[in-house]
Amino acid sequence: MMDVIIVDDEPAARRTLRECCAREPDLHIVGEYGEGRSALEAICARPPHLLFLDIQIDSMDGVALARALDPETLPLIVFVTAYHHYALEAFEVSAVDYLLKPFDDERFRKTLARVRRRREAESGADRSTALTSVLAQIERSARALSECRPRILAESGSRMHMLDVALVELVEADRNYVKLTIGRETFHARSTLQQAEKSLQSQPLLRISRSCLVNMNHVREISRTPRGDFILVLVGGTTVTSSEGYRDPVRQHLERLKLNPVGREPDDYGSA
């Protein structure tokens, strides 16, 4: 029997993994987490045999979480990602496994078969060496992506425009479209918010609600409402407010951007 922990910030993705695991008689889920810090605490307190880990999670990315794990109790890791650019060829030739979203039952079973073979064949040192190699390649891929300046096609009025994604301040879902804001101008593209997020993945996007992504490179000012939600003012003058369901992830993201006095733990954002 293998104890399993699932770490993914998308509830639908966690549900899919949970259902796949439930169909396997030798898997026992002992934890399920939507953000990295609490997941890391749980893994350190009770290391599982198998960890399904999203590469991109809001409060602490999967690479940082994997690096923080104790090599002596390192679980078998299956990285989960929706982004094909993350050095997937590195996984194919290494002892570390991955699942590319969306995946089906057959792909899950093939990955699990490989995990079972690895559990029998490899040592902890082998596992740690393979993980170190893959993490380095993931980080190189992420750096290369951040250095490029992709462009996307969007519509304004009756004309199509080529937009530099680095200039996009805000992405909002609008029925079957997304609305892209650059300064005082808005553009539309027939796309889902998730698809738009992939197209703009070279930018530091922060999801502040189910229907809104903010490019943090363009945030000029931040304040809070009386109920605790965050108000973000963008350089182009647009103002957006986070939803209650995203209050904690937004706060945690902003905490990582603060400069804290030496010897002092971070406070809640906006507290005295």
Features:
272 residues; alpha/beta; Rossmann fold; OB fold (Dihydrolipoamide Acetyltransferase, E2P); five-stranded parallel β-sheet; five-stranded antiparallel β-sheet; 15 strands; 29% strand
Any overview of this molecule?
The chain is of the alpha/beta class. The protein has two domains: 2-146, Rossmann fold; 152-255, LytTr DNA-binding domain (OB fold (Dihydrolipoamide Acetyltransferase, E2P), Beta Barrel), CATH 2.40.50. It has eight helices and 15 strands. The strands form four sheets. The protein has a five-stranded parallel β-sheet, sandwiched between helices. Strands 10-9-8-12-11 form a five-stranded antiparallel β-sheet. A hairpin with a 4-residue loop joins strand 14 (230-234) and strand 15. It is elongated. It starts with a strand and ends in a 17-residue tail after the last helix. Mean pLDDT is 84; it is low at 262-266.
The rough form would be described as elongated
Query: How many structural domains does the protein architecture include?
Result: 2
- Overall pLDDT level: 84
CATH architecture field of the largest domain: 3-Layer(aba) Sandwich
Structural class: alpha/beta
* Major sheet details: 5 strands, parallel
Task: Identify the CATH class of the largest domain.
Answer: Alpha Beta
Low-confidence stretches: 262-266
Physical arrangement of strands within the biggest beta sheet: 2-1-3-4-5
Give, in order, the helices and strands. EHEHEHEHEHHEEEEEHEEEEEH
